[in-house]
Amino acid sequence: MSKAAENTQAVHVWLVLWKTFRAIGEVARRRISGSCLGDSDFRVLEALLHKGPLPVNTIGSKVELTPGSISVAVDRLEERGLVKRKPSSDDRRVHMVHLTPAGETVIRKAFAQHEAEMERLFSNLSCQERGTLITLLKKLGKDVESRTGNGSVEASSARASIRSG
Asked: For the chain, what is the largest distance between any 2 Cα atoms, rounded to a whole number of angstroms?
């Protein structure tokens, strides 16, 4: 008996992509919350771990937080002793956010757990399949970006995500 043809209508592709993203996101949120970090705190610390010290406003756009939300997140992380604000050596009006040694310890452990969980979730895909998936998602994302222009927050967030992937 042959398998019925896969539904390839665009709306079905979107639904499958959305459900998959939601399922993976839920596992990631549970893993991250198990490390005593909220989602936004994890994203801020992860950006600092992989990009080094950054200005507050730069972190916000990288982790998709509004200017008000990023300030609150950095305040919260600073109160916990995980980050420190320091004036930029180039421009004293700009405050750079640095990981503290405690912050680096926390995010390295949390990120290692997150990375292991993602490897577990994607273990069903071969390296070649992962590469194909990445290529196709980037192709789709760049095409959507080119059609929607660069005026919206959603488009700029999508561009940042596509480029970093």
From this structure: 71
